[in-house]
Write a structure and sequence with these properties.
Length: 237
């Protein structure tokens, strides 16, 4: 199994080296995998905003603003949904942070938490066919995104936060062009691609159809990271 996946790991390492010239070995396979997680973020937020009471489960800046709007009496928004998303996100981040205290190897930690996120999305996909479970979906998806943010913060790969684009866009505009510009642009395009794809699937086919590709991507990222943790001691250390 390890031999079979070794070419994939090598390919991911080369992609990471291109994103971080001269510093690719330190980040290993993580940069391209973080780009994929950024796509997932766009998909999941498309599901939550378009299908679950106009709430964000990944973008907590927007969610906090929505909570304020809802409490102010804004139409089409739910204070309860925003509060549920924020609480579940914090619980997921707390859980991810505590797990990170026990696992020192960043790639192994990354693989574990992304796999846990995939499980939560799989559960959401399974229950998504039933009616009147909006808040269950919000909690599951927000908890998973909280764990994702916790591990992304722990591995601390520059310019690839997977959820926050405000500083990314600011850096693109404010800093001189360079390798970081490519990473930032890629991050923005990944988020846009995920949002567009998830939005089209949600609007035309519903929640299950929009969550299915997100689950596939999460599973692929978790498997790739797990393989890298086994075959690449430098990345797993």
């Amino acid at each position: 199994m390890t031999v079979q996946h070794a070419p994939v790991t090598a390919l991911l390492r080369r992609a990471g080296a291109r994103l971080f010239p001269g510093d690719g070995e330190r980040h290993g396979v993580l940069p391209p995998l973080l780009v994929v997680l950024t796509v997932v973020t766009g998909m999941v937020d498309a599901v939550s905003f378009l299908g679950l009471h106009h709430v964000f489960v990944a973008n907590m800046t927007g969610n906090v603003v929505f909570l304020g709007f809802a409490l102010a009496g804004g139409t089409g928004l739910s204070a309860l949904a925003s509060a549920a998303a924020g609480t579940a996100f914090l619980a997921g981040a707390f859980t991810g942070g505590r797990i990170a205290l026990r696992i020192a190897a960043p790639v192994r930690l990354f693989a574990l938490l992304v796999a846990a996120h995939a499980v939560l999305v799989a559960v959401a996909l399974a229950v998504g066919a039933f009616d009147r479970i909006t808040y269950v979906l919000i909690v599951l998806l927000a908890f998973g995104m909280g764990m994702q943010n916790a591990v992304v913060r722990k591995v601390a790969v520059p310019d690839l936060t997977t959820t926050v684009l405000t500083l990314t866009l600011t850096g693109m505009a404010a800093d001189p062009p360079g390798p970081a510009t490519v990473r930032r642009l890629l991050s923005v395009l990944a988020m846009f691609t995920g949002a567009l794809t998830g939005g089209l699937l949600q609007v035309r086919h519903g929640t299950s159809a929009a969550l299915a590709p997100a689950l596939v991507l999460l599973a692929a990222v978790a498997l790739a990271a797990a393989d890298a943790a086994r075959t690449g001691p430098a990345a797993a250390a």
